[in-house]
Prior knowledge:
The complex is a heterodimer.
Chain A: H1 3-7, H2 20-28, H3 34-43, H4 52-61, H5 64-81, H6 83-91, E1 103-106, E2 109-112, E3 118-122, E4 127-131, H7 158-194, H8 196-210, H9 214-228, E5 230-232, E6 235-237, H10 243-269, H11 272-279, H12 284-320, H13 332-340, H14 348-375, H15 377-384
Antiparallel strand pairs in A: 1-2, 3-4, 5-6
Helix pairs in contact in A: 4-14, 5-7, 5-14, 6-7, 7-8, 7-10, 7-12, 7-13, 8-10, 9-10, 10-12, 11-12, 12-13, 12-14, 13-14, 14-15
Chain B: H1 2-29, H2 35-40, H3 46-55, H4 62-74, H5 88-123, H6 128-142, H7 145-159, H8 175-209, H9 212-220, H10 224-255, H11 257-263, H12 268-277, H13 281-309
Helix pairs in contact in B: 1-13, 5-6, 5-8, 5-10, 5-12, 6-8, 7-8, 7-11, 8-10, 9-10, 10-12, 10-13, 11-12, 12-13
Amino acid sequence: MTEGALKRAPSAPRMATKPQQTAQETSASFSLDTAAVLAEEEHGVSIAGRSPWYLAWRRLRRNYVALASLAVFILIVVACALAPVYAHHVAKTGPNENHITENVNVAGQEKPVISQGGTFFDKKTNQLRVKAVTILSPTWWQADGKFALGADGNGRDVAVRLLYGGINSLKVGIGSALICTFFSIILALLAGYYRGTTDWIITRFFDLIWAFPVILLAIALGSALSINGINWGPIQVSSGSLWIPTLVISYVLIPYVGRPLRGQILSLREKEFVESSIAQGASPLRVMFAEILPNITSSVLVFFTLIIANNILTEAALSFLGAGVQPPNPSWGTLIAEGQQRITTAPWLTLVPGIAIVLTVLSLNIFGDGLRDALDPRAKVRIEH
Amino acid sequence: MAAFVVRRFIGMILVLVVVSFFVFLVFIVVPGGDPAIRIAGRTATDQNIANIRHDWGFDQPFYVQYYDMMKKAFTNNLYEQTHQGVSVVNQIKEGVPATFSLAVGAALIWLTFGVLVGVISAVTAGRASDRLITLFALIGISMPVFWLGILARYFLAEKNTWFPDGGYVPLTQNPAQWFYHLLLPWFVLAVLFIGFYGRVLRGNILDTINEDYVRTARAKGVAPRRVMVKHVLRNSLIPIVTLFGLDFAAVIGGGAILTETVFDLHGVGQYAAQSIANFDLPPIIGVTLFGAFFIVFFSAVVDFAYAILDPRIRPT
């Protein structure tokens, strides 16, 4: 073995402080230890005594685009989650308060929230003409925070509704990602550990859900359940509950996470450390959760990030078609559905929630990509080629 | 090969039977409560519900109910009695041409551009063009399809009348108008897939480039372009075939429900969407089964194509 590999022995002192010269010498020699070689290429220092998590963090730390995306996502989450605390003070209105008959002072000018429509007599042409109803367009910040993103057809503040809608969209997106990932891990662990019949049954279950068009199954389930909720013995879910879209989305996406995880676990199951753990008399639970689970954590993290992004999109689609978050509750999907009807007179009603979705999902996707590059050293090789 | 086809065919039928039973379970048994109320929809009278309870045999054991439901689905009168003689099967049949046109056109676009995007970004990996393409691909993936559709329709067909404002013209009636009407929906539907395929292909190509046989080909002095097309691309495209088969099947089977709804295409997906708006359960079940059929069918086709493309895989 080469010098580089020997240095990774646990008793070796930390190498980060050693002169760079040694590292350069070893990188010239052949080594099977790709992680060590990679680390040398990266920094010119050996990786002795560093945990994989530290190495991943070191790679992620320098990926400013990914970190900026994470910041954007956290900002969106915080802005929405704290909306009940601050929105009322800024916009002076709640998410469901109508202001149809009121006027707003926009940069010193009185403007009606919803202008009076109706007919008027045009003296020039001697004709009765129809005056269109106009809705207050975004005031940006010229009305002291009121109607910053305009009003909707019922005279409600779009900005406030966007924030409250975000709460529901994010709740469904993150909640369903948590549930989906949790069950996928359990199923994949069972299938990968016990193999044989258990694996066969779980794989067939994945195949079964896989056999439906995702969006169609989700919509069908969502609409079937939202007619009169779930009445299943002790489990009672009312028809307007956020639990319905959350459960439907997590259920529909289980095979998309479970399948790849099962594949990884099946190959991990053959590894020596698992064999030795079993030989030492470890219980199945211990092997699954203490030996195998830590080895799939990085994949799970990446999946989790990307699944949140995907679920936010699915929630929007479900709500848009009326099979997701039910009307009295706002969500980004229902906001777009409402806005679509007034797109010619008030395009911001459609644009604003859509941009919110794109920003959220894009930030998650970029961060997920960065996370994968950081956690999977092979990805680093790929990019440099 | 013949044995493979027969085996897959039998497997396919078995899967469909299980899928149909699953649909039955999910809609009739799992939600609990009275299924007749769900099937009758939101605006049902007590008499309607009583009729449905009797017609669908909800007082019978579950296997009789399942048998009845399947019989109704296949004998063209899944719910004719309650809906003025409109049958689910006929409605789906009427939607097929529009859905099929949408799926085929969009598939051609997303395959062409997806491969183009993937190859360009892989060849220039790490450079500015790669970063730019990756960013655009990510934005494409991050956009809700229906939102993009609404905006495209508003800005390109309503505000500026460059394109017809939704609707579907049958190919047999007027091919030019058929094309013109579908152009916008094709591109809107394809955007998501272009981004997705481009990213997958980029990863595949970069993986394949590191393979030994590619290095061997280079060492032999094969021209770079030829190495790319013959050695790298051919192998990298194999996983794309699987993806394509399943996505195409999903789009044909009503998965384009959002695009169809936004552009008013009168396809299978829009039928499903309308049924959802009216809380009509039987059509939803029907379309779901229809979609599942295509996915199961195309996954068999994909396995078959796989065996032809990659001689290392023997069909079993």
